[in-house]
């Protein structure tokens, strides 16, 4: 049995069969997946769900291409992970996608096990980065004020408590 995963992923691909195969493969191991046939619909979903961790986008699509989806998704959610897929693979294409901000790149036909592995890695990377940013925010408050809401402490347990307080307060 495969290890269960969690995380919110958006898939954007104009190839219906490929999009559905990737969606099912990621859902099967526990990811929450929303899939779209074009970038405009996908970006509307990203706006409504800024807590998602990963966008998987085809590179060549009518309308908005994958690099434009990447650029606009990052405008909405700056720390979202992006994995680009394409049937038109070349070293130049891969380098271009990475220079544009993609964290990873897969060629079609997509190997489902590799997709699952890379999606899990990228979701975890985004989660860790978000956690670090939350902890830094708490640490900045502690450095500036010497306390957090009247409480004093710098131990890992206290920092975790301060982080949870901040999360609840911002919710």
List the helices and strands and how they pair.
Elements: E1 8-12, H1 16-28, E2 32-36, H2 39-48, E3 54-58, H3 66-76, E4 81-86, H4 91-99, E5 104-107, H5 112-145, H6 156-170
Parallel strand pairs: 1-2, 1-3, 3-4, 4-5
Descriptive terms for the model:
single chain; 171 residues; alpha/beta
Brief write-up:
The chain is α/β, with parallel strands linked by helices and 171 residues long. It has helices spanning 16-28, 39-48, 66-76, 91-99, 112-145, 156-170, and strands spanning 8-12, 32-36, 54-58, 81-86, 104-107.
Describe this structure as you would to a colleague.
The chain is of the alpha/beta class. The protein is 54% helix and 15% strand. It has helices at 16-28, 39-48, 66-76, 91-99, 112-145, 156-170; strands spanning 8-12, 32-36, 54-58, 81-86, 104-107. It has a 5-stranded parallel beta sheet with strand order 2-1-3-4-5, with helices on both faces. Helix 4 links the parallel strand 4 (81-86) and strand 5 (104-107). It is elongated, with a radius of gyration of 18 Å.
Helical residues, percent: 40-55%
The number of distinct helices, counting runs of at least 4 residues, comes to 6
Question: What is the distance, rounded to the nearest whole angstrom, between the alpha carbons of the first and last residues?
Answer: 36 Å
Radius of gyration, in Å, reads 18 Å
* SSE arrangement, N to C: EHEHEHEHEHH
The share of residues in extended strands comes to: 5-15%
Anisotropy-based shape: elongated
Question: Major sheet: order of its strands?
Answer: 2-1-3-4-5
Summed over residues and divided by their number, the pLDDT gives a mean of 86
């Amino acid at each position: 049995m495969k290890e269960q995963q969690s995380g919110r992923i958006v898939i954007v691909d104009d190839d219906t069969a490929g999009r559905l195969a990737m969606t099912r493969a990621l859902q099967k191991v526990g990811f929450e997946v929303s899939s779209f046939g074009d970038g405009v619909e996908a970006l509307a979903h990203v706006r409504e769900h800024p807590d998602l961790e990963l966008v998987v986008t085809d590179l060549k699509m009518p309308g908005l291409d994958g690099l434009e989806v990447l650029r606009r998704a990052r405008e909405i959610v700056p720390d979202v992970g992006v994995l680009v897929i394409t049937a038109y693979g070349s070293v130049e294409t891969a380098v271009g996608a990475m220079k544009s901000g993609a964290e990873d790149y897969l060629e079609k036909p997509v190997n489902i096990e590799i997709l699952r592995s890379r999606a899990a890695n990228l979701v975890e990377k985004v989660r860790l980065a978000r956690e670090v940013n939350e902890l830094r925010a708490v640490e900045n408050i502690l450095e500036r004020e010497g306390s957090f809401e009247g409480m004093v402490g710098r131990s890992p347990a206290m920092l975790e408590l301060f982080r949870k307080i901040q999360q609840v307060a911002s919710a």
